[in-house]
């Protein structure tokens, strides 16, 4: 790889924008570079499920606007990849990686896609994902979908990319695009970001619209940015935030929409009180060693570390969360499918189950659809069992969990390892998770951000910062300072195996 390629492969968005403004590069040339890089390397990692046939035409129009003296904002002309559960009203399909929706255009842009287009971004294509955002089976293989196949980790090609926003995390790590959009219900932005050595932000539920995104949980779902730096992720988050009349959760977002890049601060850890959730450590000594180094780096930057902050464990939260989610998935998916474009052949969860059962060799060669069947058996959202399960989940994770810990210790944020190291891909037994801290913030609907923290035998490890609702600005300040102090990230080399 020559120096120019490396520069475009790794350059941050603000520097790219400077090149665009001076004419040193055009949006078309940048888009063409991204397309060529995908063509060269995606055969190794399988991150992109569909190319946008209109990408170069979009870039040309944006170049014309710039030549006329008009730009739409700081991301004008910047390519972006989006996860294949986010609707686009163009020639691309939206399938959640499922053959049941193959060849089926959504008919209209999701609200977040409208925001991307309005900001002057080039929609480069769709990324592969864990099918149905990892909500088909408890024995799934992260990054595998029946439409897209298996996405692989670019740091070790025999290992998982994490999920469910697998392709988005891998694509950004590989330099296929400077930015990507993922979605999260519980870990689906944070985990693949951490496992691919990039930054991911899971916003507060209600900050970013969910309209036009294939749902799992109306209480926990959100889209969010994935990027190679906190600054780039903050810039993309600023674009995504917006009040959507079709998503009531965003009703008061006008008062919260800000330029999150204003919160970048290399000295942002000075005077901060950071709690360490030790209950989310201890699953691997190598990860614990990296955490020790992270805490030392934060102390060196002037942070006060409060040890052994207690939070409910994932195992404590998960039963009520899973129960509530199964009700929400059935209701949300059925509603979404009813409003799909005319070419969509399945209109209910039950019809998807029937489709999958009729095509077991192509749709279910490795794992079943037990979560689908569980959800299909649930009642309506006014069921007392559901109401109680959701209330218990919110209490444990939110008021009785993160909120209580922040208040008890006077904390700005809580930190923990984002996930374990990427495990070997296993289509027989499924994912082999051994640790991860996404659940408390996800179940509460609170924000979290993961930043590259180190490498375990060449495999990326991430550090998560999380706090109370709408504290994105605080988390970006802390994460940007940590990133500036540690400068951990290294680009992948497409190794066949980990450094064993």
Summarize the structure in short.
It contains 17 helices and 13 strands. The protein has helices at residues 3-10, 13-22, 27-45, 55-67, 111-118, 131-134, 166-173, 190-195, 230-240, 285-300, 314-338, 349-358, 360-363, 370-376, 384-409, 439-444, 472-486, and strands at residues 48-51, 79-83, 122-127, 144-145, 149-150, 179-184, 199-202, 222-227, 273-276, 304-306, 413-417, 448-456, 459-466. The strands form two sheets. Strands 1-3-2-6-8-7-12-13-11-9-10 form an eleven-stranded mixed β-sheet. Strands 4-5 form a two-stranded antiparallel sheet.
CATH superfamily heading: Amidase signature (AS) domain
- Per the CATH scheme, the topology name is Amidase signature (AS) enzymes
Sheet of most strands: 11 strands, mixed
| C-alpha end-to-end distance | 26 Å
Question: Spans of 5+ residues with little confidence (pLDDT < 50)?
Answer: none
Query: According to CATH, what is the class?
Result: Alpha Beta
- The strands making up the biggest β-sheet line up spatially as 1-3-2-6-8-7-12-13-11-9-10
Summed up, the helix count is: 17
> Which oligomerization state do the chains in this entry correspond to?
single chain
Structural category: alpha/beta
Mean pLDDT: 96
Shape: globular
The tally of strands reads: 13
CATH architecture classification name: Alpha-Beta Complex
How many domains, as an integer? 1
What percentage of amino acids are in beta strands?
5-15%
What fraction, in percent, of the residue positions are helical? 25-40%
Radius of gyration: 21 Å
The sequence of SSEs as H and E is: HHHEHEHEHEEHEHEEHEHEHHHHHEHEEH
């Amino acid at each position: 790889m020559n120096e120019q390629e490396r520069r475009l492969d790794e350059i941050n968005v603000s520097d790219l924008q400077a090149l665009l403004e001076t004419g040193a590069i055009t949006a078309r040339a940048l888009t063409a570079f991204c397309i060529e890089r995908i063509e060269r390397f995606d055969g190794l990692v399988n991150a992109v499920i569909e190319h946008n046939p209109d990408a170069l035409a979009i870039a040309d129009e944006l170049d014309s606007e710039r030549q006329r003296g008009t730009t739409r904002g700081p991301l004008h002309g910047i390519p972006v990849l989006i996860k294949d559960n986010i609707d686009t009203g163009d020639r691309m399909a939206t399938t959640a990686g499922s053959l049941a929706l193959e060849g089926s255009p959504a008919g209209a842009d999701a609200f977040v896609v409208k925001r991307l287009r309005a900001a002057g971004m080039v929609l480069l294509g769709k990324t592969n994902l864990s099918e149905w955002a990892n909500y088909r089976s408890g024995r799934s293989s992260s990054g595998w979908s029946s439409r897209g196949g298996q996405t692989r980790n670019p740091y070790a090609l025999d290992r998982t990319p994490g999920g469910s926003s697998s392709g988005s995390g891998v694509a950004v790590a590989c330099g296929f695009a400077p930015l990507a959009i993922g979605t999260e219900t519980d870990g689906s932005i944070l985990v693949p970001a951490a496992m691919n050595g990039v930054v991911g932000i899971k916003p507060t539920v209600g900050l970013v619209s969910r309209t036009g995104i294939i749902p799992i949980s109306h209480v926990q779902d959100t889209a969010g940015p994935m990027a190679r730096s906190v600054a780039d992720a903050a810039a993309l988050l600023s674009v995504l935030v917006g009040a959507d009349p079709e998503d009531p959760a965003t009703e008061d977002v006008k008062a919260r929409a800000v330029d999150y890049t204003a919160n970048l601060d290399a000295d942002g850890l000075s005077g901060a009180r950071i709690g360490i959730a030790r209950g989310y450590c201890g699953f691997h000594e190598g990860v614990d060693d990296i955490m020790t180094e992270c805490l030392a780096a934060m102390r060196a930057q002037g942070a006060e570390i409060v040890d052994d902050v207690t939070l409910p464990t994932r195992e404590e939260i998960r039963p009520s969360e899973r129960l509530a989610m199964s009700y929400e998935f059935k209701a949300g998916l059925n509603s979404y499918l009813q409003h799909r474009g005319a070419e969509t052949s399945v209109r209910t969860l039950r019809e998807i189950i029937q489709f999958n059962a009729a095509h077991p060799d192509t749709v279910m060669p490795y794992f079943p659809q037990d979560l689908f069947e569980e959800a299909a058996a649930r009642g309506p959202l006014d069921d007392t069992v559901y109401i109680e399960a959701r209330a218990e989940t919110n209490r444990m994770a939110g008021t009785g969990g993160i909120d209580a810990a922040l208040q008890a210790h006077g904390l700005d944020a809580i930190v923990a390892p984002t996930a374990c190291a990427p495990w070997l891909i296993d289509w027989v037994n499924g994912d082999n998770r051994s640790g991860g801290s996404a659940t408390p913030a996800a179940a509460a609907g609170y924000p979290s951000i993961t930043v590259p923290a180190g490498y375990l035998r060449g495999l990326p490890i991430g550090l998560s910062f999380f706090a109370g609702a709408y504290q994105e600005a605080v988390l970006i300040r802390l994460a940007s300072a940590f990133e500036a102090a540690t400068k951990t990230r290294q680009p992948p080399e497409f190794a066949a195996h980990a450094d064993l």
